[in-house]
Amino acid sequence: MEDQKSCLIVGCGDIGTRLSKLMFSKGFNVWGVRRNPDLLPSEIKPVASDITIERTFSDWPTCDYVVYCVAASERSDEGYRQAYVKGLSNLLGWLERTKQNTRRLLYVSSSRVYHQQHDEWVTETSETLPTGIGLRLLEAEQLLEKSDIPTTAVRFSGIYGPGREYLFKQVRAGYGVVGANDPYTNRIHQDDCAGILAYLIEQDNLGVQLASCYNGVDNHPARLSEVVSWLATQLNTKPTLPLSRASTSSKRCSNQRLIELGYQFKYPDYQAGYQEIINKHR
C-alpha cells in the first residue's frame, strides 16, 4: 500500500481551512497551523503557532507538502512585511535547517505584484514593478527563488464567495454607479482558490512538472460596470449611488497556464459564482 501523503497548511483561515478539508477528503494527513487552532475542523490536526516567531515551530510535523496561506494582521506595509516576508523567511529557514525533505511548498500570493493598469493582458512572465503592499508580496516571491526547496507561487485576484460579498452587498444597497474610470477586474471564487491549490498538490504528487508561478483567476476578466450591471439586473435593483473603489488598477490576468495544466473551474466566471450567492439570499 502506498504511503499516505501529508500536508501542512500554514495559515488556516478561510482558504486554508477549505483546502484542509479538500486534502483530507483526498486521503492526506493534514495539519493546520494558526494562532488559535481551536477554530479548525475536527478532522484536521491542529498546530498552535505564530509564523513570525520561530521558537513556536518546535512541534511542527514533517510533511510532504507545505502551503503558505497567511493573511496580514493589518493592512499596512509593516503588517504585510511581518506576514509575508518575515513569516515566509522563517518558514523557509526552518524547512532548510531541519532538512524536512519537502516535496513542494505552495505560496499564496496576489496579482498585486503586477503594476500594469491600462487594460493590458498579464501572464506569469509579465514584468512586475509593484508599489505599496505589492512590493512585500513580490519580495516574498523572491525568497522562493533563492530557496533550494521546490516552490510554486499562486497569484490570486479578487477573491469572493460566502463571507466575501462586498460588491454584492453594495449593489443590493443601491451602490453601483461606475465613474469614467471603468477598470477591468479579475476574480476567483474562494472554492476555486482551494481547488487550485489542491489540484497543484495532486499534480505534483503524480509527477507532473509544475511551473514556479500560476495566475489564480477565473476565465473572464470583466469591466466593473459589466459586473455591476449584471448584479443589478439579477437583484432587480437600479443603482443610484457611486460605487466606492480604492484601486484604479485595470488589467486582465490570463489563467492560460493553469488551464493548460488541466484545472477545471467550479465557477469559471463571475456569473456562475455570484448566482449561487444571489440564490442563497433570496
What does this structure look like?
The protein is an alpha/beta fold. The protein has a domain at 6-157 and 189-217 and 252-266: Rossmann fold. Helices cover 35% and strands 20% of the residues. It has eight helices and 15 strands. It has helices at 14-25, 77-97, 133-145, 166-172, 190-205, 224-235, 256-261, 270-281, and strands at 6-10, 29-34, 45-48, 65-68, 104-110, 120-122, 151-156, 159-160, 175-177, 184-185, 188-189, 213-216, 222-223, 241-242, 251-253. It has a seven-stranded parallel sheet, with helices on both faces. Strands 6-15 form a two-stranded parallel sheet. It has a two-stranded parallel ribbon with strand order 8-11. One of its GO terms (cellular component) is cytoplasm. InterPro entries: Epimerase_deHydtase, NAD(P)-bd_dom_sf, NAD(P)-dependent_oxidoreduct. GO terms for molecular function: aldehyde dehydrogenase (NAD+) activity.
Q: What's the CATH class of the domain at 6-157 and 189-217 and 252-266, please?
A: Alpha Beta
Based on secondary structure, the structural category is alpha/beta
* Low-confidence region ranges: none
Tell me what the CATH architecture of the domain at 6-157 and 189-217 and 252-266 is.
Answer: 3-Layer(aba) Sandwich
CATH fold naming of the domain at 6-157 and 189-217 and 252-266: Rossmann fold
- On the 0-100 scale, what is the average pLDDT? 93
Proportion of strand residues: 15-25%
Pfam families: Epimerase
Domain NAD-dependent epimerase/dehydratase: 8-163
GO molecular function: aldehyde dehydrogenase (NAD+) activity
Protein name: NAD(P)H-binding protein
